[in-house]
Amino acid sequence: MKRLFAVGCFLVAICTAATAFAAGPIRIGALFSVTGPASFLGEPEKNTLDLLVKEINAKGGIRGSKIELFSYDTGGDVTKAVQLANKLIKNDHVVAIIGPSTTGETMAIIPLVEKEQIPLISCAAGIKITEPVKRWVFKTPANDHVAAEKILNQAAKLKQKNIAIITVSDSFGASGREQLKQMAAKKGFKIVADEVYSPKDTDMTPQLTKIKSAKPDAIICWGTNPGPAVITRNMHQLGMKTQLYQSHGVASKKFIELAGPEAAQGLMLPAGKLTVYNLLGKKDPQAKVLKGYADSYKKAYGVEPSTFGGYAWDGFQLVAGALAKGAATPAQIRDGIEKGGKLAGVSGIFHISAGDHNGLDLSAFEMVRIDKGTWAIVH
């Protein structure tokens, strides 16, 4: 029978599961972009995993075994990510890897984990990570086509039929651009402008000027910081009043800080429920998990957690759930994740199966609006 785990009872269960004797430590690997341009992703992910491992070990570990964490900083570099994944597998002998933080890094190490048969639970969103399904690869952020559909559903509600898109020229942006174009055509939208920018660009005025001349009803920006913040500021500087949508790639307070509250006022994006957990009703199936995670993170680090840290929280829970049921080898962990049933996580309600190694749907996101420097739910 499928079970729905909340964070409190789940952690108690895995820490108190019966075991004949304490085995050796469980070696888990992690790859995060703690430094570099994607540090806004990697830092909260690392912080979250460190916190979870500390909490679990303080309660005796899982089935009597402590977690031994091997965590490395990739700096967002694809080559380094492959080198460190090799190190985790061949030197550290980990039974599972959580991360990396970005789609590009994840795609680069997939051939390695598939060859070495080590379960990988990515913290990146690109749809190509898990579609088509790879035997040893899972991911915790919702697929980008889910975010694209959430945005276009809102645009349709507001009768915004002529759409401009501006996407970053990396793996995340390319995937988002592909999904937006496919879904826009399917839903009857017209893309009147299609612009691309580099992750290192510091001024997108030329692209926005072209977009402005196309007179779209709405603009969809797809990328991760700092580019989307630059675009938001540039639009404000150009006096553009067109409705701006951002992707889930900027769903943290850091984006509002970078863009500025005035420039960001009124823009909308699909975001994980963690961004608005204090606005959710008590009956929401994620409410207890979200509050528990937020309280623990704030107590440990003195700041609010981000959606991105939640990706690591979910990745660890998927691995820990398999371990709690008796999995020990990489193959058993892989099978345990795939057959784990229903899990209430930070990123959504997971229904992972043999045919779906992400397991999230539209319910993973709330459509939110930035209002006076903070988040509000769009009703």
Please provide a written account of the structure:
This protein is α/β, with parallel strands linked by helices and 379 residues long. It folds into two domains: 7-142 and 285-360, 3-Layer(aba) Sandwich (Rossmann fold), CATH 3.40.50.2300; 144-277 and 365-377, Rossmann fold (3-Layer(aba) Sandwich). Helices cover 42% and strands 18% of the residues. The protein has 13 helices and 14 strands. The protein has helices at 7-16, 39-58, 78-90, 103-116, 144-157, 171-187, 205-213, 227-237, 253-259, 261-264, 287-301, 307-324, 330-338, and strands spanning 26-32, 67-73, 96-98, 120-122, 137-139, 162-168, 190-197, 218-222, 243-246, 268-272, 342-344, 349-351, 365-371, 374-377. Strands 2-1-3-4-5 form a five-stranded parallel sheet, sandwiched between helices. Helix 1 (7-16) packs parallel to helix 12, helix 2 (39-58) runs parallel beside helix 12 and helix 5 (144-157) crosses helix 6. Mean pLDDT is 93; it is low at 1-22.
